Predict the 3D structure of the following.
Amino acid sequence: MRTSQINRKTNETDVKLSLDLDGTGKSEINTGVGFLDHMLTLFSKHGRFDIELSCVGDTYVDDHHTVEDVGIALGEAFSHALSDKKGITRYGSMILPMDEALILCAVDLSGRDFLGYALSIPTYKVGAFDTELVEEFFLGFVRNCQCNLHLRQLAGTNSHHIIEGAFKAFGRAMREATSIDEQFSQEIPSTKGVL
């Protein structure tokens, strides 16, 4: 079973997360940040990952700590569930249309963290959500999943569509990268022999 449980408690947040990489896309998500809940529900559905996630955070300050720490915990959860990464496809990519928005997402579960972030979100807010926190979420994720992740906006003028397209594309790319390649199920997909 490729699953993991993460409990991450700081003075700012208390995150509890369970992840099943080989799920059906079921999710129960309550971070206290409605827009983030919506994005992670989409990620779960399009990635076919089962996710249960709760976070109690200091949202009376703002949403920064919650969004960042949820990204950190999700990255840790993927890292733990992937274990030695034996048999995984390793690479995944998606070019995803969301109405006028077109988003490219590419991932390499390489064991090295890098975020190539090229989303140009035109507004500072979507509802009550600070759009600059999208990058903070993905930074937290890549640093703790230890992966290369590139997000590039090829088109788009609506902030909600751009961000939603990014999370859907992220789910699809991660689904591909984490999937088991049956031909090579006993191999680490690297000439180094380790990822």
Notes: Residues 159-178 form the longest helix (20 residues).
